[in-house]
Amino acid sequence: VFPEMSLTVTGIDFLKSQNTQQHHTDGYNIKDLVVRRGQPFLVQVSLSRELRPADKLSLRFGIGENPMRNRGSLLSLKPEREDFNGWKISVVKKNGKECLLSVTSSPNAPVGKYNLHVKTETNIYKPENGAIYLLFNPWCEDDVVYMADEAEKKEYVLNDTGYIYVGSAYSIYDRPWNFGQFEEFILDACMYLLDKSKLSLNDRRHPANVSRAMSALVNANDDNGVVLGNWSGNYINGTSPMDWIGSVTILQKYYKTKKPVRYGQCWVFAGVLNTVMRCLGVPSRCVSTFDAAHDTEENLRVDIYLNEKGEKLNSLSFDSVWNFHVWNDVWMKRTDLPNGFDGWQAIDSTPQEQSQGRFQCGPCPVKAVREGDVYLPYDSKFVYAEVNADRVYWVVKKVNGKDKYFKVGTETQEIGKNISTKAVGQNRRVDITWEYKYPEGSKEERMSMQRAYSFIRPSGLMPRSGYASTIQTLGGNTQPLVPKEPVNKTGLQLEINNTEALHPGNPLEMAITVKISAPGNWTVDLTGSCQLQYYTGKVQANLGTIKETINLEGTSEIQIPMKIAPDAYMKTLSSVEDEVLILVTAIAEVKETNDKLTKETSMRFEYPPITVQMPETAKLFNDFTCAFIFKNKLNVILENCKLLLLVEGLGIFKMTTFELGDIMPGRIVKSEIICTPTRLGEKKIVAKLISNQIKGMSTEKAITITE
């Protein structure tokens, strides 16, 4: 009797193209297999002889440095036997020495990079490229990240480009951003971050833990994470936050050097975190809030200090209102919370405040913000304050050599406006303020606020400057105070707008409109100021002020012009690395009734367009030419111009920079590049022009690549 020939494995085929199409992972630019949890994938095993019923064959999936069965990091699966961890394997068909197996991982398996070995009798076969990346699965109903709508999954998981909305509530604009979650090394960078997070295997099962850890790791604070924040205006030893057009270069550089990439501001952190979450399979979107409060004491109030000329003072403020702030929403069921808080969760990787000792924020259920349930994890008080704080204006006056504070206005409906994200399947902005808050002034809003105020104890209305003890606190009142707009006897209203286009190099022409609706004769003292400020609310330069006393009769209005000469601001504009906004603040006081009102508006400079000329479609591997045309329609020389071009996902070339030198007024410049597309589908080309005078000019155009 001849001894039985022992069973060994001679090869494994991961059937990559078939599996990745089924799993919506065919976009990843990586040689290994990428699959999503809770969904079957096929492997074809080649054996030394036919498989018989008595044979022992098992697939071993290991994760981490030293996989062990008792730690759950090594799964040993035998066909037709469900494993205790919810994984299973079945034999699909046997054909001679070939055996086709179907593997289904658990819908709550830890995400990460697994290695597959096949064990027979005494032999262990270790394939080359035996790594399998396991991701969250929004297509699987049993996965907590399940998303029912196909178009939403296409946008929030698979779309690798998008827009981030910035500017000010008065002038919102879109900044194209290349998320690029499928590009080379991005998935590996995310795996590196997962390992670096020190999350336990158990914690890797739930996207709430993973998204919280990623919000900490995308900023460099306290863990050598991906991006180093810098709001100083000096970016000499790094890249100015304004110059990034996407996350790919940042994550590739970080993965290569393992050192924080310099520098980011909020939209950069949000862009990178969006890439990381989509790459790991969690539906994710960038969310921009205009006039977002940065409230350092969770007292739901931001104090703004003005001097007697109505100019905002930087030095006294502990807290601030950012013209815009960008964070992310990720989609999941919150199995760790009471019912009713599933769906979008806010996470924020901009390092603002520590949470449990690290710069991390969220996930905070968006529904908890809307309902005022600010006791729920994580960081819901902070997120609630960002979109619901009140803004209180104080004028600082010297009285007998001492600073005294006079309240000149309270706004209860100005914070957290125009909350925006990119529309599903369309290149337009959609307003999602209603998801974060009930309509201002509605019954539900009052109830939600009362609820929030019962968890957040606001201190009495005192200015928060250290030595400001000139005002009595409201003592002994334990009822939560929900502030109301101050009563206004004359119906005083202020409006601020620009009367001419705000082109750099031209005078800034603005107007403050004062309205009164009560009958009678009224004397109004109006103070107005114009300043340049960063989007974080930090004032960069004072440009000019006006002071007028006006008389109004009955229901009437008057428009007071305000004009700033180019000389007053051009020097500042050229000396800063960031885009700055024009801030106009107006204070009005009615002498007869002591009605006081303060209003501020931030506006953005307007720039001439960049034109992109190229065909609408091109064939795979066929060259096409792309031309960029820019005419300087401004009255100033644009110095030291650079044109940055990025072709997204075409696999053509990374980024090209043209040095254009100085562009005189009226001059037209044209640059051309030749592209060779290597991938099908719609691709975007983004062009950005940077000069000493202007930091924020960009445009983009799409091209469809066909076979």
TrEMBL record:
Enzyme active site: 266, 325, 348
Pfam family, one: Transglut_C
Cofactor: Ca(2+)
InterPro entries, alphabetized: Ig-like_fold, Ig_E-set, Papain-like_cys_pep_sf, Transglutaminase, Transglutaminase-like, Transglutaminase-like_sf, Transglutaminase_animal, Transglutaminase_AS
Note on how the cofactor is bound: Binds 1 Ca(2+) ion per subunit.
Protein keywords: Calcium, Metal-binding, Transferase
Protein residues bound to Ca(2+): 388, 390, 440, 445
Protein name: TGM4 glutamyltransferase
Family under the similarity heading: Belongs to the transglutaminase superfamily. Transglutaminase family.
Domain of life: Eukaryota
Single GO term (MF): metal ion binding
Domain (Transglutaminase-like) ranges: 258-351
